[in-house]
Amino acid sequence: MNCSSDCAPEGGKYFNSTRKDEPISEELKEQITRAGALNPPILIDPALAFEYRVPAAGLGYWSSKRTEENPVPPRSAISPAEITKYLPTVALIDVTENENGGIELFSRLAGAEIERVFGMMSRQDLRKRLPPEIFARWQIIFRALWVAKAPLRVTSRIAYEEKSYLYIECLFAPLTNSETNSITSLVFAEFRMDS
Q: 140-165, pLDDT tens digit by residue?
């Protein structure tokens, strides 16, 4: 479960994949810039320079599910029994590109810590569940994941319900699923209060 030295980011390149020597695409750079211009800003980090234990452990877990045949693991490879310690901080969110090229989000699962901050999210259409300004922020993050097709580190202060005293670091990692124009995001989140 630990993130070993194989998980080490390679400055500005994609994480440990067949694409690791490719530069970051212009479309991903655009999403990173959009996220950074928000208030509060969101840092999207494809180099995966994790500072918190939970998202780093999530990267190790996701990496353990990769194979040569499946560099992006299938959703079916994720076993809650293997990550019971982290379940309160885990989410599985389906990310679907709609006919207009927009991103739709459906939360299959959200752990207790995530719901403590963002409210009830499990089995919810997030466009209907979240306020429009928060959904718009999340669309940028999930569009970046869609474009990257690789794990991302995401950090920000919480913009939801005046909880800016909370800081979050997350792993957003792609999983394949059986739906057309869709991926599932495995999220490992850790929240900290201002010290």
A: 999 999 999 999 999 999 988 888 88
First-to-last C-alpha distance (Å) of the chain: 28
Q: Tell me the HSE value of 10 on the side-chain side, using a 13 A CA sphere.
A: 13
**Nearest residue to 163 via CA among 126, 123, 143, 192:** 192
The count of other CB atoms within 10 Å of the CB of residue 141 is: 24
CATH number for 10-78+88-193 (one of 3.40.50.1820, 3.40.50.2300, 3.40.50.2000, 3.30.450.20): it is 3.30.450.20
Cis check for the bond before 40: say yes or no (omega within 30 of 0): yes
User: What is the tens place of the pLDDT at every residue in 133-144?
Assistant: 999 999 999 999
Q: Cα angle vertex 43, ends 39, 45, to 5°?
A: 165
Token pair recorded at residue 31: 């999403």
Please list the helix, strand and coil fractions of the chain in percent, rounded to the nearest 5, in that order: 35, 30, 35
Strand, helix or coil for residue 122: coil
The reported pTM is 0.87
Distance CA 24, CA 47 (A): 10
